[in-house]
Write a structure and sequence with these properties.
With about 100 residues, the chain is mainly β. It has one domain (about 5-100): Sandwich (Jelly Rolls), CATH 2.60.120.10. The protein is about 0% helix and about 40% strand. The relative contact order is 0.42. The mean pLDDT is about 90.
Length: about 100
């Protein structure tokens, strides 16, 4: 069976961008905004309260939605992915595909 592609989601606030989900076979995040976005891989949703704790940074676009922002593959990562944009202004698009049993 093929994986079921979930609708993309635009996330425009600091917090959880991708929650842990059973049956995920692919999941990506792309920065679509003009502000660099920090990301944190965690199982604890309160971890993002400390904005200086992050695993990496998604590079920004030159202009909103120009397609030049970083894209990262989190398919093999267990846990949630939280984001933080300076000034509370992240703009990321998320993509997930899951095994049909888990839709």
């Amino acid at each position: 069976m093929q994986a079921a592609v979930l609708p993309p989601r635009l996330v425009t606030a600091n917090g959880v961008a991708l929650a842990f989900r059973q049956g995920v076979v692919q999941r990506f995040i792309q920065n679509c905004g003009t502000v660099p976005v920090k990301f944190l891989i965690s199982k604890d949703p309160t971890d993002l309260a400390t904005t200086d704790m992050f695993h990496g940074i998604l590079a920004a676009c030159t202009s909103v939605d120009d397609g030049l922002g970083s894209v990262l593959d989190f398919s093999k990562v267990v846990g949630q992915i939280s984001i933080f944009g300076d000034g509370g202004a992240p703009r990321v698009c998320t993509y997930q595909a899951v095994e049909p049993f888990y839709v």
